[in-house]
Design brief:
Blueprint lengths: L4 H19 L27 H16 L5 H12 L3 H14 L8 H6 L6 H17 L2
Helix pairs in contact: 2-3, 2-4, 3-6
């Protein structure tokens, strides 16, 4: 079976069109993580952390939450590391986390915190405090 010049041209045009659409993200799946707007800052702060620092804090928080079965101190330090941030920095860390763990089961800061079981009053109070702060600024 031989293809005519017109058929070859149509196949090439379709391939070029497909490559262009792919490069523009037409076939990309939906992102599970979401971007939190800096407009949600309630304390009037501006971001002071760079992207690399935000990624490191996000990764450290995830590791603390997923590895805290060893000690409640790990949980407390992880939660306190986020509670000590200004609203703008917390949003920056949240957005960095969302970009790093898009297709993971715990793909937002809130989801990785919610999955943790807490039984002590100190850890449950910290978890509640951080969840309330997440709600306040839209994380």
């Amino acid at each position: 079976m031989k293809l005519t010049k017109i058929e070859i041209g149509l196949i090439i045009a379709a391939a070029v069109l497909f490559a262009y659409a792919y490069s523009q993200g037409v076939f990309a799946g939906p992102e599970k993580g979401y971007q939190t707007s800096q407009g949600n800052v309630t304390d009037g702060s501006t971001p002071t952390v760079d992207d690399n620092t935000a990624k490191n804090r996000a990764r450290a928080f995830r590791n603390a939450m997923l590895d805290n079965s060893v000690s409640t101190e790990i949980f407390k330090e992880g939660v306190n590391s986020l509670l000590s941030l200004s609203d703008a920095d917390l949003i920056a860390v949240s957005n960095a986390y969302n970009k790093m763990f898009v297709n993971e089961e715990y793909n937002t800061l809130r989801s990785v915190l919610v999955q943790e079981w807490v039984i002590y009053t100190t850890t449950s109070a910290l978890k509640k405090q951080l969840l309330e702060r997440f709600t306040k600024i839209g994380i």
